[in-house]
Each structure stands twice: as C-alpha cells, then as structure tokens.
Amino acid sequence: MAHAPDPINKSADWVARSLRSVWHPCTQMQHHESVPLVPVSHGRGVWLYDHDGKRYLDAISSWWVNLFGHANPRINAALKDQLDKLEHAMLAGFTHEPVIELSEQLSSLTGNVLGHAFYASDGASAVEIALKMSFHAWRNAGRGGKQEFVCLKGSYHGETIGALAVTDVALFKDAYGPLLRAARVVASPDARGAREGETAQDVARRAAADVEALFAERADQIAAIIIEPLVQCATGMAMHDPLYLALVRSLCDRYQVHLILDEIAVGCGRTGTFFACEQANIWPDFLCLSKGISGGYLPLSLVLTRDEIYQAFYSTDVTRGFLHSHSYTGNPLACRAALATLAIFRDDDVLNRNQARAGRLRQALAPLARHERVRHFRQRGMIFAFDAIEPDATRAATFSRRFFTTALEHELLLRPIGGTVYLMPPYVLSDEEIDGLAERTRRVFDSVISS
Ligand SMILES: Cc1ncc(COP(=O)(O)O)c(C=O)c1O
C-alpha cells in the first residue's frame, strides 16, 4: 500500500508535540534543540518514512531489533492470525501454543542442551532473571555464599539496577553508583587491545588469564560471569576471538562458576551463526535473548537454561522455586512474532544467504576500510564497524551527533557510538541497497571528517 505524505500533520507538528509530551530514552533532551527528532510515519523493508515523505535506510535495525524489515508481510500475517485467537493470557497456571512451540524450537536450536525457557519482555529483564536464577540455584545447592558477579570491561547488559551493576559504561552507570551492588570487572578480550606482534587469540588468552586469576582467588564467592559473546556491542562493537569463550567455559567448569551469555544483541544470526556461542562450540548455563527474537516487532526476552539448573529449583518447597514474574511474560503475540521469525530463518536459508550479503557489504565498504582517517575496520557476520581518527578533542566529542545529523541528510539512520561508526542492518537488504548504504556511509564520513 502506498503512503502519501500526510498533508495535515506534517513532521514538524509531530516533533513539536513529541517534545512537549514524550521523554525519549537514552537522550539528554536539551540536545534536541540542535539534533533533529525524526517522526516516523511508517516503515517498509529497510526504510523508515516520515510524514513529509522523506525516507531513511534503517542501517542499525532500530536499535538492533529488526531482522527482516519493517512491515514484513509474513510476520504481519502471523500476528493478524494470532490477534483473532489470543492476545494474552497469564503464564502462571496457564500455557498456550505459541509459548510452547517457541520454547521447543529454541531448545532444539541448542541441541536440547538448554532445555527450558523463562520469559520476560525487555533485554534488561532477561539479564535480571539470569543473575537471580544463578544466585538462587547456588543457594538451593547449599552454596549461598556465591553472591558475586563478574563482568567484562566495557560490558553493557541493560539499565535496570541489577543489569546496570554488571554494566561497565561510565556514562550510563556513574550517576547510579550508590544504588548498585559492585561487580568484579575483568579484562575485555577486545582484539583492538593487541600489543605489538599479538594476535586476537593472544589477547583472548591474556583476558582469560585475568578471569582465571580472579576465579582462583574467589570462586567460592562468585555465582556467575556474564559475557556478551563475540561482539561487545554498546561499548563500540568491540570484537573478540571465539577462543575466549571456549577458555572461559572451561574455567567456569573447573571453578564451578555459572556462565551467562548475553546474546540479546548478538543472537539471532547477527554474528553469522544463530547463536554467537556456536562459533566457540560451547553452551552457557544461561543464555539471554531479546531484540531480534521477535523480528523487532514486540518486546520479548527470555533466558534459556540447562536442565540441571531447572532441576535445582524443582521441589515440594515453594521457596525453592523461581518465583520471579512479569505480567506480560510469554505474551502470545510476541511469541507468535518470534515463531514467524524462526520460520523465515528456516524457509529462506537466512544464515547462508547472509554470508553473501555480508561479503558484498564488506566489499562495498572497502574504500572506507582503507580510508586514511579510519582504523580498526572490523566485521563479524552482519555487524560492521570502524573507528574514526579525529585528533581534535572538541570535534571528537561531537563526532557522533554530527555524523547522525549528516547521515539523515543522506537518507541514512546511523548513530555512531562515540567515534565508532557501525552498520547492523536488517537481513533483507537488496544488492542495490547494500551498495547505496556503503556509498552513502562513505560520503557521510568524508563530509563529517572534513567539515
Ligand atoms: C547486550 C545487551 N544486553 C542487554 C540489553 C538491554 O536490553 P533492553 O534495552 O531491551 O532492556 C541490551 C540493549 O541494547 C544489549 O545490547
């Protein structure tokens, strides 16, 4: 269906009304005095449209959630069908087809190693669940002294109090420091940290040695280590070698510490495999999923766990159970969107076809990779990133905002993280859109770096 520009409610009107009434996330609202707010009227495929008919290629999948484009006909059809059956029912004491089928299919994607799924809505809630479950499982096993959590330098796991405690991004965390329970922070395996002559695997070994030193000293107090596998996204797409995950898995086994993998951003094929941890041939004790699992349609998050963990809570004693809940836990519409998403993965051979897509995008981005003001061009699956060389501190501080604004003028939605420009597009880019995305990104970069 064609959408004509809306003649009455122009973009400017919506912006004014939004600024009067909506408090936007992750935003210093004062910045909107100079940074544009984009009112979205509708979406189609990789494009978002405003009320004046201007369009923007959603090159970061709307905060990394969208997988198969906006208004995807297959996900839409599944949701319309589900709407006429059941919009929601509580999941305590009741169950329903979409949540059962989704749990079965996800477990099967882990080779049934992770046999049970516990549901919530946002990513941060899944992290809270994994942290609480880990502590409680140890407590049920008579090891209530295991109360500490370990996270990586630069880690990001969400904004709620528990998730923020295992986040290591000062900008988000410092203001709330007094409210947070301190976590132990270990070295990041970020391959950019390679010293002269070192490979990414050497960095991974060094970072794993840091974990081992901590475990050797305090494993009796540590419940779990939480890791975002292969790519630490929010800190600036810091990528590491899969060897790190294999080494930490074996340390967790040796020292009896749970391994929580946060695949909220990197799961669902972003890194090339459905789960990032498959590239290290390991499974965690807890795996957190959200964002892409509903195709970017509805808030849905979940924690997959091993059966041993599930069994640790199974008892005649109610207090040994996991009594956590959210009202919309396992919402049927969200689960149905997820089932439609998994069906597209299967029917369209998405992971294989993404290899060709990623190959073409990598080639199209080659001029940027060679650019004299670019360093650390990197890629993992469908995630591409590079760091801008901006020697002037004042200009470096405003690089991200200037890039975002200039990108909008080039029909692109791109929001660098500090000096890191990254692309994490939906998996439905045509060849023409791939080439256009790369070309426009280069033009935006040239313009921002030289203005
Ligand atoms: C790795 C990771 N974990 C957790 C979260 C939190 O998810 P949500 O924003 O849905 O609470 C995010 C969000 O960006 C994330 O990237």
Automatic annotation (TrEMBL):
Q: Does the keyword Mitochondrion apply?
A: no
**Family under the similarity heading:** Belongs to the class-III pyridoxal-phosphate-dependent aminotransferase family. BioA subfamily.
Task: Identify the GO cellular component terms for this protein.
Answer: cytoplasm
Q: What is its EC number?
A: 2.6.1.62
**Biological pathway:** Cofactor biosynthesis; biotin biosynthesis; 7,8-diaminononanoate from 8-amino-7-oxononanoate (SAM route): step 1/1
Q: What class of enzyme is it?
A: transferase
Q: What Gene Ontology terms describe what this protein does at the molecular function level?
A: adenosylmethionine-8-amino-7-oxononanoate transaminase activity; pyridoxal phosphate binding
Give the matching Pfam families. Answer: Aminotran_3 (PF00202)
Site description Participates in the substrate recognition with KAPA and in a stacking interaction with the adenine ring of SAM, residues in chain: C26
Which residues are pyridoxal 5'-phosphate-binding? G123, A124, D262, H326, S327
Compartments reported by the entry? Cytoplasm
- State the source organism's domain of life: Bacteria
What this chain does, per the entry, is described as: Catalyzes the transfer of the alpha-amino group from S-adenosyl-L-methionine (SAM) to 7-keto-8-aminopelargonic acid (KAPA) to form 7,8-diaminopelargonic acid (DAPA). It is the only aminotransferase known to utilize SAM as an amino donor.
Q: Which keywords does the record carry?
A: Aminotransferase, Biotin biosynthesis, Cytoplasm, Pyridoxal phosphate, S-adenosyl-L-methionine, Transferase
Gene3D superfamilies per UniProt: Aspartate Aminotransferase, domain 1 (3.90.1150.10), Type I PLP-dependent aspartate aminotransferase-like (Major domain) (3.40.640.10)
The subunit structure is: Homodimer.
Lineage, uppermost ranks: Bacteria, Pseudomonadati, Pseudomonadota, Betaproteobacteria, Burkholderiales
Protein's UniProt name? Adenosylmethionine-8-amino-7-oxononanoate aminotransferase
Give the PANTHER family listed for this entry. Answer: ADENOSYLMETHIONINE-8-AMINO-7-OXONONANOATE AMINOTRANSFERASE
Q: Positions modified as N6-(pyridoxal phosphate)lysine?
A: K291
Q: Which cofactor does it need?
A: pyridoxal 5'-phosphate
Give the species this sequence originates from. Answer: Massilia glaciei
Indicate yes or no for the key word Ubl conjugation.
no
Its BP terms in the Gene Ontology are:
biotin biosynthetic process
Name the residues that bind substrate: W63, Y156, K291, S325, R415
